[in-house]
């Protein structure tokens, strides 16, 4: 401990004398080299490491449909329905996006489904929906995502009175979308499908970007090409099938700011019947029109985001997202508070209201016929069904107070019975956690090593003390 404090103090002094990245890197390496020796060995021999193993074992429990309670249908996606669900052991609510296996195969959507799942695993942002679990049933692949009860922006723009929003609400949503795009771009991911339907509100009025089926990772220094997106929202470089990096997303932000303000998209009026070719021609050659709903700042940011040449577009220069956040349109937004989740939204959904069309109006999917699943499909399902995702799962344990209820040590930081290797495990009570774990215990009861025995007693302790459920 004294040695670690000495190293930390030395690092602090060096940084004050030479505040540069190289010195910081050297100090961090020196501290890391020290901690990985004796301190880490001490940690491995402590009860805290045993408790860590308990939590990791709990985190890696097999995930099946029985892990959840299923509730009403919320809507539908391209490959199946979306319904509300609840984790039985913790009570946490999520949205379950079901991708029907036969429908995926018929439409050759395997790569899109796997791509969305893998990208969601990489992203951890309060402005992008989080993937908590991925599992399969007999008929479907399931993505368990952040539950967003407030509806989508399209519903709020067009179904809540006069189309469009006041400026402060437009600013707030645009700023959060900007932060979400920034997080994706830091992971070298271009979203490519920014539109009101894909922006969802939570219970508190904050938004998240959803539906990452068209998102893709852009190799460093190697722009991509792909004519994908939604008609009326695709950038000129996408329509022209040119190479691009993150530029389509900033074009999409411009389209959204325009639509939230005007109550219509910039290149096609709502419900206007016009051919795809005509819309694309307007995007490539036409100029958007600005009514008196647009303030000077709003019109200015729309113009620089909807610049046809991506090299001149705001967000695509060397400043990147910093340049967008610095625009005078966002002068009333404190981005540090926004990133911390403490900026108050201008609109909070009514918890008694349902911000979507009646579920009875949701079109039912027809049965897929003539599609047979084989071993190749099973290999794909194996890659998809990887169980829980660490960070969202850990947040679930904290938010539902399971961590504070179960992570209990003895008086004066002594070992509890479940962490004492010399204490035989207590008989488990027939409880919910016991039912969840007993299949795993039965599978491993004849092959447990010394460490596994400790984890086994941990499971019994968790069953015995499951005050969280």
UniProtKB/TrEMBL annotation:
UniProt binding sites for ATP: 106
Domain RGS: 5-53
Name of the protein described by the UniProt record: G protein-coupled receptor kinase
Pfam families: Pkinase (PF00069), RGS (PF00615)
Positions annotated as active site in the UniProt record: 193 (proton acceptor)
An MF annotation (GO) of this entry: rhodopsin kinase activity
Domain of life, source organism: Eukaryota
Keywords in alphabetical order: ATP-binding, Kinase, Nucleotide-binding, Phosphoprotein, Serine/threonine-protein kinase, Transferase
A Gene Ontology BP annotation from the UniProt entry: signal transduction
Species name: Oncorhynchus tshawytscha (Chinook salmon)
Classification via SMART domains: S_TK_X, S_TKc
Xref: Gene3D superfamilies: Phosphorylase Kinase, domain 1, Regulator of G-protein Signalling 4, domain 2, Transferase(Phosphotransferase) domain 1
PANTHER family per the UniProt record, alphabetical: G PROTEIN-COUPLED RECEPTOR KINASE (PTHR24355:SF26), G PROTEIN-COUPLED RECEPTOR KINASE/RIBOSOMAL PROTEIN S6 KINASE (PTHR24355)
Family: Belongs to the protein kinase superfamily. AGC Ser/Thr protein kinase family. GPRK subfamily.
Keyword Nucleotide-binding: yes
